[in-house]
Model the fold of this input.
Amino acid sequence: MKNTAPEHAPLLQFPVHDHCLYLGGMPLTRLVERVGSTPFYAYDREKITERVALLRHYLPKGLLLHYAMKANPMPALVQHLANMVDGIDVASIGEMKVALDTPLTPDKISFAGPGKRMQELRSAIAAGVTINIESEQELKTVVDLGDQLGFTPSIAIRVNPDFELKSSGMKMGGGAKPFGIDVERVPQVLKYAIALGIDFVGLHIFSGSQNLNVAAIQEAQLKTLQLGIRLAEYAPSSMRLFNIGGGFGVPYFPGEKRLNLVEIGENLQPMLDAFQSQLPETRVALELGRYIVAEAGIYVCRVLECKESRGKTFLITDGGMHHHLAASGNLGQVIRKNFPVVLGNKVKDSEKEQVSIVGPLCTPLDLLADDISLPKVDVGDLVVILQSGAYGLSASPSQFLNHPLPEEVLV
Ligand SMILES: *Cc1c(COP(=O)(O)O)cnc(C)c1O
Done:
C-alpha cells in the first residue's frame, strides 16, 4: 500500500472527525480551550488502560506487571496506572513520594538507580519499599541505616548480567556498567546478605530500553530467567520476586513496526513455566515504562508564524525542545529523525506543503520536525507531536530560556 502523507499516518491512533483529532472523546480544538493555553501534553487514559489490557491478555498469566515511573511521572497518570499494575518502580525520592500516594502498598514499590543519597535511603527504609541495591557499597550503607533506624530494610539485588539486550536503543546491562552488581560478584554478596539477616525480596535485572526486535527480547528473557535460576541457589531465603526488566519499544520513525505481543507472550510462556517449575515460590515481574504510556500521549503547540527563508518554510511555534527534547532529536538519538507530526485541526486536509517546525528558543537545536509534508498551514494551527507520552516533559530542559512550563492533562 502506498504510504500517503502525513508520512507517519499509520502511527496516528486517535480518531479524526471533520479533520480534527479527538483525544479522550473530545475534539482537540475544544481540549485546547479546556486547558486554556498552549503548549501542553495530553495523555489519553483509555489508551493507557487498553495497553495494560493488551499486555495482560497476551502475556503469560501469573506474570506481574510493573510500571517504571521514570517514563512518565505525572501524578494523575501514575494514580490511574496504580489501579491496574502490580507494582511501581521508582528511581528517586520524588518518584517514591508519588508512588506512596497511590493505593499500592509499599511492598509493591521498588526503588532502583545508582547514587541514592543517604536521605533517600532512610526514607525508603522507613517507608518499607524494596530497595534495589546497585552496588556493594550501597548494600553496606542500607544495612547500617537499617540498624540506626531500627527497621529492617527490604532489599533486592540488581544484577549486571554477563549478556546484553541486543538491538536496544539504550543498553543498561552487560559489560562494565554503573548499574547493578556484576553477576560474578553476586553469590558473594548474597552470602554477606545472609549473614546480616536482611529481608531479601529477590533479584532485578534490567538490560535495556526501546527494543523493537522480538528475537532480541526473547533471547534476553531466556538468559535472564536462566540466570535467575542459577543465582537463586545462593539466595538467603526463597526469592519472592524476580524482576526480569522489560525494554519493550514503540515505533517512532518510518519503517519501525509495533512489537508483536502475541509472539512475545507465546515464547515467554514455556520459559516462564520452566522457571516456575524450579522456583515455584518466586513471582516474576516485567517492568515497563515507555511501552505502557508512550503511544497514549501527544504534545500540542500552536503556530505563531509561518516564515519563509530562501525558499524554505519554517513554522515557528510556541513549543519546542525545552518541553520535548526527544522530538528535537537531542535525547540520545545518534541520527536525528522526525517524530510523527500532524496538524491537529487539519489532520486530513489534502493540500500539502513542505515545512520545518521550530520552537521559540534561540538555538538551531530547537527543531521539532525537519522538512516534513503537512497540510497548508496557517498561523494559529495546532501542531501535534504523536508518540509523546513517555520521556517527554520530565526528560526535557524546561528551564532552558525560561519560558513558561507547559500544562499536562490526563483526558
Ligand atoms: C528506565 C528504566 C525502565 C523503563 O524503561 P522503558 O524503556 O521506559 O520501558 C525500567 N527499569 C529500569 C531499571 C529503568 O532504569
Notes: Confidence is low (pLDDT under 50) at residues 1-9. The pocket of pyridoxal-5'-phosphate is lined by residues 68, 70-71, 89, 112, 206, 209-210, 246-247, 287-291, 390 (CB under 6 Å). The radius of gyration is 23 Å. The chain is about 30% helix and 25% strand.
